[in-house]
Amino acid sequence: MKTLALTLITVILYIHQANAAEDILSVDKTVVIQMVIFLASIFILNSLLFKPLLGLVDKREQLTTGTIEEAKKLEEKVGQIIEEYNSKLNEARARALEERNETRRQAQVLHEEMIKKAREEAQALLEEAKHKLELETREIKGKIRSDVETIARDMASRILGKEV
Questions:
Q1: What are the domain boundaries of the chain?
Q2: Closest Cα partner for 13 from 21, 34, 1?
Q3: Sign of the C-alpha dihedral, residues 10, 11, 12, 18?
Q4: In the structure, what pLDDT confidence band is assigned to residue 16 with cuts at 50, 70 and 90?
Q5: What pTM was computed for the model?
Q6: Is the model's pLDDT at 89 over the cut of 90?
Q7: CB 100: neighbour CB atoms within 10 A?
Q8: HEC readout, the chain
């Protein structure tokens, strides 16, 4: 609108000056018609060419900027997902390590219990064997006593030459 008003004012001043200076330049109706055609072409070109072209440029810039921003958001989201994945992976590793340590502890306790039980059984067998040995020793000593007495008398008789 400003340009239209400015153009009209310019045309009016030009016509006024043209009337004043008829000798130098003669102005007729064709100048006015040319000005109207010029203004009409500016309005037509503005609505049919310049506005759509500028709209396309703006739309393209918005799409490019929007795509870049969307890519940045997706990159941040991917970073968060990777961070969450690593966190869960570390938790799973810690849990697995804890379970493995617990299993080792239980195996160690079971191992110690088995060793203790084996020692107790070995001790019991050893005690039983000692007891049997003592019984056998007493039995053998009992059997040998009578034989020893007989052998001792027999030896004494032979040494002394008479029966004892």
A1: 2-160
A2: 21
A3: positive
A4: low
A5: 0.41
A6: yes
A7: 10
A8: CHHHHHHHHHHHHHHHHHHHCCCCCCCCHHHHHHHHHHHHHHHHHHHHHHHHHHHHHHHHHHHHHHHHHHHHHHHHHHHHHHHHHHHHHHHHHHHHHHHHHHHHHHHHHHHHHHHHHHHHHHHHHHHHHHHHHHHHHHHHHHHHHHHHHHHHHHHHHHHHCCCC
